[in-house]
From TrEMBL, chain A:
InterPro entries in the cross-refs: SQR/QFR_C/D, SuccDH_FuR_B_TM-su
Transmembrane segments: 25-47, 73-96, 108-131
GO cellular component terms attached to this protein's record: membrane
Pfam family, one: Sdh_cyt
Keywords, ordered alphabetically: Heme, Iron, Membrane, Metal-binding, Transmembrane, Transmembrane helix
Organism: Agrococcus casei LMG 22410
Compartment(s): Membrane
Name used for this protein in its record: Succinate dehydrogenase hydrophobic membrane anchor protein
Molecular function in Gene Ontology: metal ion binding
The keyword Metal-binding belongs to this UniProt entry's keyword annotation: yes
Amino acid sequence: MTIDNPNYAYPARSSNRKGPNLDKIGWVFMRASGVVLIVLIFGHLFYNLIWTEGGIQAITFGFVAGKWADPFWMWWDVIMLWLAFIHGSNGMRTVINDYVHKEGIRKVLIGAVVVAAAVLIILGTLITFTFDPCPAGADPELLPSFCATL
Amino acid sequence: MRVSQSTSSLADETPKPSKNRIAGTVYRGNEGMWSWVLHRITGIAIFFFLLVHVLDTAVVRVSPEVYNAVIGAYKNPIMGFGEIVLVGAVVFHALNGLRIIAVDMWPAATKIQRSLFWVVIALAVILVVGFSIRHIPNVLGAH
Ligand code: HEM
Ligand code: HEM
């Protein structure tokens, strides 16, 4: 949510409203998650595209299997997945609220963002934690080298 | 955010009035507005990339052959250029996000928010050039 002049004399929330201020929680979350996401996403891009010899050309099944054999990278990716989707969807909610004023359409669009984010968060989490780096019957050429010694 | 009376000296430093009546706050007109437009466009673009990216990564569960074929689509020069644009979007959004946080938190940063925008642009350009020097040979080098 983009704030206007910080000294705006008319706060967005009336003082007699009860309960947690969800918009304020969202505002704080955007900042906290943003700072963590910098580390996770820059680390992701640096490791996959710069540090690894060959960069983009080196990304294959074997590369991913090598990473996800290590819980460190599994957790890295899953935390990045959750934070990026929650941050991104909350941001999309702000954008939709800014441009769509017809209540029905607005609800449908925000619903679509929430459903897409929820489905992909669950899919990505399941994929990462149930991953098998050495699937039976696969061409050994395509698997990480440690599969041969199993 | 509500700011108490005692810290409201900033209000006196709203940019000078301009011909354009829309200018006049931290966010409207000039650098403040461009940073906001770019922040919004890059945020939306990264969101849509992420939707596709989690799906392409999920293909690792289909089979090694299918994953390698799908990810192969990222390895041609056109996509290589797209990856530079994507990295540029991420780097700008991230650095500008830090600028927004700083400008909201510290009055000192609010006062120099215009220059901070150019600092963000400069750092983003440096990082993207550095990335390209490493990335372009990788894209062009056959595997
Ligand atoms: C890399 C670290 C990131 C940082 C430091 C960051 C920072 C921020 C901040 C501070 C805001 C709030 C702006 C405001 O309240 O005015 C924001 C908004 C937003 N972010 Fe991020 N972000 C990051 C990554 C991402 C990612 C990965 C996505 C997409 C999945 C994303 C999508 C968005 C969107 C759509 C908005 C709303 C833009 C608007 O309201 O105009 N951001 N970001
Ligand atoms: C061209 C740039 C990119 C490439 C080549 C790339 C490549 C990959 C690869 C190979 C994986 C598999 C696992 C791993 O390596 O850790 C992955 C996973 C992931 N990437 Fe990227 N990535 C890129 C950009 C991004 C960006 C900008 C984001 C954030 C907005 C992102 C977010 C993720 C997430 C959340 C996962 C984990 C998915 C899961 O656990 O199911 N990636 N990426």
